[in-house]
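Researcher: For the annotation table, I need structure tokens for C-type lectin domain-containing protein. Please keep the output clean. Sequence:
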Amino acid sequence: MANALQISLKLLFFCTVVKLISMECEDGWKQHGANCYLATEDKKPFNESVLQCRAMSAQLVEIGDADENEFVHNLTISMKSAAWIGASRENGTWTWVTSRRPITFTSWVNETKKKQHGCARMWKKDGLWHSIACKRKNKLKSICEKKVSATDQEWVIPVAVTSITFVLMVVIVLTIYSCWRKRDAKKIQTDLGPEDSNPYSNACAVNDDYDSENESYDNQDAVYTNVSQDGEPTFDSRDKEDIYATPIKTALDKDDNAVFMVDNSVYQ
């Protein structure tokens, strides 16, 4: 009994491979929304900072709203330093140096002073923007930004089911398949009586699921036997003292073949 129980609870293992797409930042980068940010450690001139970010498939940060500005400000606090942002002024107009898009959100410390120089930095103290000359002697840390990358990872996951569960699953699947196959099939039954007392033991009955518009009736007592080659049912009148079956109707099935139906009652 114990062995049988152990066998019935024996686990059947199989493995499936699942591909997961993860959206995350690389090591050292911090995620905010759909972007990743990196606070650099070394100080460089503005142009070199631009190239440094590009080498990492990124750009000097382009700030789009107050929420992102606050996030970048917190990075400068952790850096304990002001940092370059990606704003630059050309022909009196401030744009983002990498994308060349116009700047729609600003956080200038002073609207007048922003016209004095061609580059911009963020102070760690207040998160405001300050214009600064783009000279080589001005070296600052920087904030690089890039989109969150999608990486494919495949995981092999073991799946275990008990042998009982496995057998039940197979039975259920086979039952559903069998019912589906028989759904539109003709259902034949041959229960008109024992063969030794019924000379017409090959008579049969079918379920009433045919074209009712083509049905015909017969008022006489009869036993239906086989359907002839031309599709017409044949029958022979019998006396009630002998075995017989009362005819119900004949009809055409879905393929226009002649079929018939009889009462399941048997009389001696």
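Researcher: And a one-line annotation?
Model: The helical segments are 2-8, 46-55, 66-79, 163-182.
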